Amino acid sequence: MAEVRARVKLNVGQHSHIPAEIVSFHGLQDGEEHVALIFNEADKNEVPLIRMHSECLTGDVFHSSRCDCGEQLNECIETMHEQGGIILYLRQEGRGIGLYNKIDAYVLQSQGMNTYEANNHLGFDDDLRDFSDAVLMLQAMGLNHVKLMTNNPRKLNALKNAGIEVDKVVGTHAHIKDGNRHYLEAKVKHGSHMLDMEKVPEKK
C-alpha cells in the first residue's frame, strides 16, 4: 500500500501564484514517481474534487499546439484554487507510450493520422495507461469517495471498478486552438470523451 512520504509547499498556476502542496508516495506498483498536488485541503466531511492528469511534457510545459493537456491542467488548477481539490499527476506520457514514441507519433499525425491511428501504427494500443497507482494514491490519503474532474470515461470506470465511489463527474472545457481540433475530435469519436466541442472557454 502506498503511503504519503513528504509534503512540500509550492506555487503553481498560469495566471497567478496559487499555493499547493506536493505529496510523494512509496509502494506504488509501476515504479514511476507519481505525485499529488493538494489545493485548499477541504473539510474532512466534504467529498474532494480530484483529477487524474497524465503527464504531458509537450503540452503541460511547452504548450504544444497538438493537444489540450496544458490548458486542461491550468483549468483544473484554477478550479481547485477556488474549490479545493487534488491533482494526481501521473507519469504516463503519451497515453503510456513515452515521450520519444509520442514525438514519433507527432510525425505520423503530420502525415494525416489521428492520435490513435499514429499510436497503433507504432505498434501500441489506443491507451496503455493503468490507473491502479492512482487508486493506491487515493487510498494512501484515506479517500474512497470523490468527485472526478475528467472527460474520459476510462478514468471514471477505473475508479469505480477499484471500489472508489464517484459522487459526481465534472468536465473540463474544450480548449480548441490552432492545430488541435483534429486531436480533440478524435478523442470524442474514437475515445468516447465527454467533450462538448461547441463550448469553448473565453481566453483570459
TrEMBL record:
The keyword GTP-binding applies. It catalyses: GTP + 4 H2O = 2,5-diamino-6-hydroxy-4-(5-phosphoribosylamino)-pyrimidine + formate + 2 phosphate + 3 H(+). One of its GO terms (molecular function) is GTP cyclohydrolase II activity. Belongs to the GTP cyclohydrolase II family. In the N-terminal section; belongs to the DHBP synthase family. Its cofactor is Zn(2+). One of its GO terms (cellular component) is cytosol. This is GTP cyclohydrolase-2. The keyword tRNA processing does not apply. Binds 1 zinc ion per subunit. Signal peptide: none annotated. It comes from Pseudoalteromonas phenolica. Catalyzes the conversion of GTP to 2,5-diamino-6-ribosylamino-4(3H)-pyrimidinone 5'-phosphate (DARP), formate and pyrophosphate. GTP binds at R51, M52, H53, S54, E55, Q72, E93, G94, R95, T115, T150, K155. Residues 20-169 form the GTP cyclohydrolase II domain. The gene is ribA.
